[in-house]
Amino acid sequence: MAEPGSVGMNADKLEVVNEKMENLLAENRLAGGVVVVARRGKVVHFEAYGKRNLATNEPMEKDTIFRIYSMTKAITSAAALMLWEEEKLDLDDPLSKFFPPLKRMKVWKDGNLIDIEREATVRDLMRHTSGLTYGWMSSKPIREALRSAGVLDRNKKLVTMINGMDKVPLQFQPGSDWVYGCSTDVLGGVVEVSSGMPFDEFLEERIFKPLKMMDTGFYVPANKVKRFAANYSYKDGKLTLKDDPKTSRYLENPAFKSGGGGLCSTATDYMRFLLMIENGGKFEGKKYLTKKSVKLMTTNQVPKKAGWVTIGKREREGIGYGLGFSVREKMSKWDPDRRLGEYGWGGAASTHYWISPKDELVVLTLEQVMPYSFNTEWAIKGLVYDALMD
């Protein structure tokens, strides 16, 4: 922690973030949230707002536990790069090296299954150019195949689930396009196979314990349930309880450890991970990744022919993707408050983070509202940048 002025930020302008968050609460856009701002490795703003549970009137607190969904992806990508540095995998390894049945995968095109021109690789998984997608954003044949294979089924073990994906068609030839999907879940399986350790144990031993991410895991243990936030649905100005923390499925350890979206975490835990990335792979004297690996994560790795990041039908013009994070390649009307080189991502319950390397700035916003909303990020991003004094 540090005073804002000591790292070139205006304390009065950061106070406006509090006003904006209170406005979002008053508008019933969220039940509660947490915002953390760090510059030059020091946290200068860490505040909790509203309620973690509206029914019980429990306040949101700094150590509240959140479902972080796709913010899991960056952690899984970091784990894979650790193994790449140790030469236990290669970024251009085909998926069949780890899961032999996947050599039989086909591409769905114009109503037919066609042969793949080349296998998807570890690199494809990390930058979302594998052709693997999510059921909700794919065509009916792919959606039905994903359902039939039990992809992302919490009751299936990770490696077993992935080996059963050989009959799931790819949306396009690997490397030819970009699509958001279950690629990072498969990457979690790659980590498990190449490390020889269960995926969750690898994360615990190599990332969570050394980084002191004490509240991060694939479920919330009984002694921490009192800190677990409720999750809400937002529609037509109304918040409706979607997942009660006292009966949530996250209270049980799932068989399937989702590297694409399975973790729960706290603001402190996830900020420690982000500060490690922003610091070039080092944190508190320990090295987790090389600067080369961090550069691969934080610079666009998607071929030009694949275009910009597109979720559903909405293209995010100017946004590319590295081996773990989205990256601002050029300015556009999409999220105009972004800075060039800014990287980050979010989670399905409207959690989000961004890092601006040029400004040595890391910002984390956590809430629990579905479907995903940019409300908090876009409400405060310009305010945070405006608070920079140098």
Strand order of the largest sheet: 3-2-1-18-17-16-15-14
Give me the CATH architecture of the largest domain, please. 3-Layer(aba) Sandwich
Largest sheet composition: 8 strands, antiparallel
Rg from alpha-carbon coordinates: 20 Å
CATH H-level homologous superfamily name of the largest domain: DD-peptidase/beta-lactamase superfamily
H/E series: HEEEEHEEHHHHHEEEHEEHEEEEEEEEH
The number of distinct helices, counting runs of at least 4 residues, comes to 10
Helix content: 25-40%
Counted up, domains total: 2
Structural class, please?
Answer: alpha+beta
Q: What name does the CATH topology of the largest domain carry?
A: Beta-lactamase
- What is the highest CATH level, the class of the largest domain? Alpha Beta
Structure summary, number of beta strands: 19
How widely separated are the two ends?
A: 19 Å
Shape: globular
Q: Approximately what portion of the residues adopt beta-strand conformation?
A: 15-25%
Low-confidence sequence ranges? none
Q: Compute the average pLDDT.
A: 97
A few lines on this structure:
It contains 10 helices and 19 strands. By secondary structure, the protein is of the alpha+beta class. It has 2 domains: 1-63 and 229-253 and 353-390, no CATH class; 69-218 and 258-346, DD-peptidase/beta-lactamase superfamily (Beta-lactamase, 3-Layer(aba) Sandwich).
